[in-house]
Specification:
With about 350 residues, the chain is α/β, with parallel strands linked by helices. The chain has one domain: Vaccinia Virus protein VP39 (Rossmann fold, 3-Layer(aba) Sandwich). About 45% of the residues lie in helices and about 15% in strands. It is built from 14 helices and eight strands. It has an eight-stranded mixed sheet with strand order 1-4-3-2-5-6-8-7. Helix 11 links the parallel strand 5 and strand 6. Helix 5 packs across helix 10 and helix 7 crosses helix 10. The longest helix is centred in the N-terminal third of the chain and has 38 residues. It is globular and about 65 Å long. The mean pLDDT is about 95.
Length: about 350
């Protein structure tokens, strides 16, 4: 038996420390900054100054605020700490490259994944190291493992994100009726696809993803699950190569904000092409409301986490994009990723989760 080198107490302790710091940032620094912002707005109002109208006004108001500066610095460098340094994700998994390559080869040979050796990544995708992951999630054969482990502290209030994905799966299927065929666009290392194929054996699931390292990890996991109703495919979500009108549901999780608006337009057109008449399009992503402070935090996160397309998505006319793709209407519904997240008294930082829902005319 090959020794599992991933059992590393120093590494686990370091990553747990990073997660604890992220929890402090989420639960303590964020509400404290919000309180200081409210106080600054009240003080400006008493001096006859107007309240901030947008995120730029908030940035100007808090430009010299030490907590605002620390809040941004802390988030940026926590993410950097997660990946780099002696016990960062990149050196940890690079040290196990030989063993992990064997595991990924088993995934590639499982028959559950189709890779394209001539596949060319979109320019926008390779132009920046998304999430600050060195080299992105696509360029290193162990990049899928790095991404999977890093995702565990992306949303620190959630327990391994299981609740989020299972909640979304239930939401999708409650709207999809007797769906039999589902495409999961931008499936990554398979986390979003897994609740569909594991809990609903009647579904035929296809995961589409750009990153070969993520796809081989997804296939390895599905093979370990002994799944027979899932397959993975390396392709662009805007040009999947799948048959037209062959699916009842097209979905994605945290994909829209990773693409520039023209690519989203193309992806929605592809979504419409893939759906059978009456089929459901439903994408889980982030859209913050018009509140200036929340938008300031969201746009700041975009810059600090190397995710440049969050603001363009937030300002995009998604209803118009759906109409141009062939859908009659689109509905944006707030999504509660865990119990109580949408309650009025919830004051910790969270992503502004929404479901973007449309249906192809029957």
């Amino acid at each position: 038996m090959v020794k599992d080198l991933r059992v590393n107490r120093a590494f686990d302790a370091y990553q747990d420390f990073v997660l604890s710091c992220k929890l402090g940032w989420t639960r303590q620094l964020y509400p404290a900054l919000h309180a200081q912002y409210d106080a600054a707005v009240a003080e400006a109002g008493s001096a006859g100054q107007p309240a901030p109208a947008d995120h730029a006004d908030v940035a100007a108001l808090l430009a010299d605020n030490p907590l605002a500066q620390y809040f941004g610095w802390f988030e940026r460098h926590l993410q950097r700490m997660k990946y780099s340094g002696r016990h960062g994700l990149e050196p940890h998994f690079a040290s196990q490259r030989e063993q992990l390559a064997e595991e990924l080869a088993a995934g590639a040979a499982s028959g559950l994944v189709t890779l394209d050796p001539d596949f060319e990544q979109p320019g926008y995708y390779v132009a920046v190291d998304i999430h600050q992951q060195p080299g992105g999630v696509w360029s290193d054969e162990v990049g899928g493992y790095i991404y999977e482990r890093g995702a565990r502290s992306t949303t620190p209030l959630l327990k391994a994100d299981g609740d989020l994905h299972h909640r979304f799966t239930r939401e999708v299927l409650s709207r999809a009726g007797t769906a039999k065929r589902l495409v999961d666009l931008g499936c990554g290392f398979g986390k979003s696809s897994r609740p569909f194929y594991r809990q609903h054996g009647e579904l035929d699931v296809v995961g589409v993803e750009l990153s070969a390292p993520c796809l081989t990890l997804a296939a390895r996991t599905a093979a370990e699950d002994q799944a027979r109703n899932v397959r993975f495919r390396q392709a662009d979500a805007a040009d999947t190569g799948l048959d037209a009108e062959a699916f009842d549901v097209v979905t994605s999780t945290m994909l829209l904000h990773e693409m520039p608006p023209p690519h989203i337009e193309s992806m929605l057109q592809e979504t419409h092409r893939l759906l059978a008449p009456g089929g459901l399009s439903i994408h889980l992503d982030f859209l913050t409301d018009a509140d200036p402070f929340r938008r300031y935090i969201h746009y700041g996160h975009s810059a600090r986490n190397n995710e440049p397309f969050m603001p363009p998505l937030n300002e995009m006319d998604l209803a118009g994009a759906h109409r141009r793709a062939g859908f009659d209407s689109v509905e944006v519904v707030p999504f509660e990723e865990m119990e109580g997240a949408l309650a009025p008294g919830f004051d910790a930082w969270r992503f502004p989760w929404v479901m973007v829902i449309a249906r192809k005319a029957a």
